[in-house]
Description:
The chain is an all-alpha fold. It has 13 helices and no strands.
Amino acid sequence: MNTRALEQSIHVDLARQETYAGYLQLDRMLSSQTPRSDQHDEMLFIIQHQTSELWMKLMLHELDRALEHVKTDQLEPCFKIFARVAHIQRMLFEQWAVLETMTPSEYLTFRDALGRSSGFQSYQYRALEFMLGNKDENMLLPHRGTPDVHAWLAPRLQQPSIYDEFLRLLCRRGYAIPDAVVERDWTKPYARSDAVVAVFKAVYEAPEQHWEAYEMAEKLVDVEERFQLWRFRHMKTVHRIIGHKMGTGGSSGVAFLQRALGLTFFPELWDVRTELSPPSTSS
């Protein structure tokens, strides 16, 4: 018989708060999908973006912990965190494949229901950008009408990014990081420094002597590369579904997303690669 007997030890007499559904608050989560149209594909659109927000929440949770480790001069615990972040980023990237099953004609059946809402207004996405160093106070403007969100996001603009804190750690450890890099207005975009490139050149030329700094630098490059791939996949998905139409949030759409691909979080970690030469060999 193709059945499996219920084991006697399995709990079946449960109060609501003791259940799987109660622990995960599934009644709240599964009732939060409220399409504004009667079109079948709007459910896909909503769940795609809600699950992305959940993954972003976890990514922020992990990066916040990594930031605290860096601030207390502990790089090694960050490496496990960045390994987890890599998998979160992979999930975010792969989700676009699900949305790409929606054709342009299917999206147009409910696009008007979005009104002026747009992924550009995602405050968790903006928090991730601030955490990684893409600072721009104008990005707070869409949140003026939601004071609680604005109050949550503004401190992330004002605090050092994870790259800033890494450079400050290197400075504390005696690396020649300029004062202007480690003490500045954190709300402003980071400006590339030749002196910082020189520091990383020394690190990459002798990784065995600077192992923690070397490993941390590579972990940050991993994060930025995956973030850029995510941005690119987002842009191509939008291009595939709406072409060059204006975005629902008022942006130019694909053109606006393309310009984001030119932004970088950790410029010296990319530029140092050009500066490296093969190690010299004695005859």
